[in-house]
Amino acid sequence: MATQAVCKAQGVVASAIRSSVTRPVASLSCAAPLQSRKANVFVPQRPMGLRSRKLTTVTSAAANGTGLPIDLRGKKAFIAGVADDQGFGWAIAKCLAEAGAEISLGVWVPALNIFETSLRRGKFDESRKLSNGSLMEFAHVYPMDAVFDTLEDVPQDVKENKRYAGSEGWTVSECAAKVGKDWGNVDILVHSLANGPEVQKPLLETSRRGYLAAMSASSYSFVSLLQRFGPLMTEGGAAISLTYIAADRVIPGYGGGMSSAKAALESDTKVLAYEAGRKYGVRVNTISAGPLGSRAAKAIGFIDDMIRYSYENAAMKKELAATEVGNVATFLLSPLASAVTGQTVYVDNGLSIMGLAMDSKTLERSA
Question: How many distinct structural domains can be found in the chain?
Fold first, then answer.
């Protein structure tokens, strides 16, 4: 009797597996797009008050062996921190657009006019080109300063600053309200923000004001974004930020409290993954990217040295391309990473695994 029961159960499982596999399509000329569907799956019995009423999302892919494409058509992505076409934020936007996502940007208020003018005059057209020949378009471009949560938080001197003149509704809460009005919901949230006014000062010479400013702009801003955008995000959505190896390794010259801010960002990623996961059903991760010679990075003052150091000492001896970070971000923000949350993912050619500088003079041996 027990044997019959086991055989019957195995037959049921085998039947369920067969029914969940996508059959090969007739044509092998291109990969079928990734499909997501709802399916009832077995869950342990619990009291009704504790049992989840939601169905588990099962991801099926083409079974013809032609690929596992990322399909984000119909998804809405808000990216905070893009100010030009050189940084990681732009690369992530472009990769998400390649996958079919609709993109809106939150641009730092003092940089907004230059960004919009460059966009309008076609200065970004070459960078906007997608693989199908079309140009990446933005559904909305909002002014945003993630240092301020509400209008009441903005000091009078900032309100009167000429660089903010003509812009309104640029605090985090106001920007979230605009996005909610225009879009209704958001599937993807990208935090590409960092600033440390005293970044070139050693930590021992950093003022309290400079240290807290770095923490506010570079790490708490991610908390603020999830506080305000979380209620707009669809269940199964994802958020991501960008960190740096200085969070857990000493990088002399990366000062002003920025290393502390990145460490806080990585710690917050874990806590936010739990809290946003339980509250909104949203995944939260961060990418620790290698050095890139963007305009923002040049403010550090020694980014070219860091690029050369990484080239000589990383596991993969090559320069990092922004698109490589964009590709990983797109994966983490897609259903393919549906079980990945609370992680710091290194995209740095393997620099973070090395414990020895291969170009060190101490390794030189006389003939």
Answer: 1
What digits encode the pLDDT tens for the residues 20-43?
333 333 332 333 333 433 334 333
CATH of the domain at 166: 3.40.50.720
Q: pTM for the full model?
A: 0.82
Q: What is the pLDDT of residues 254-276, one digit of tens each?
A: 999 999 999 999 999 999 999 99
Judge whether 318 lies within some domain. yes
Positive or negative, the CA dihedral 19, 21, 26, 30 is positive
Calpha distance 225→341 (Å, rounded): 17
Query: What pairing do the DSSP bridges indicate for beta strands 35-39 and 56-60?
Result: antiparallel
Residue 279 in domain: yes
Closest CA to 225 of 261, 189, 194: 189
Catalogue the active-site residues.
Answer: 244, 254
Note whether 143 and 107 are within 8 A (CB). Answer: yes
Q: Who contacts 293 (Cβ-Cβ below 8 Å, separation ≥6)?
A: 303, 304, 307
Cα 55 to Cα 38: distance, rounded to the nearest angstrom: 6
Count of CB atoms within 10 A of residue 46's CB? 9
Quote the domain boundaries for residue 171: 76-352
Read off the pLDDT band of 293 (50, 70, 90).
confident
Residue 133 has pLDDT above 50, yes or no: yes
Tokens of 329: 């971000």
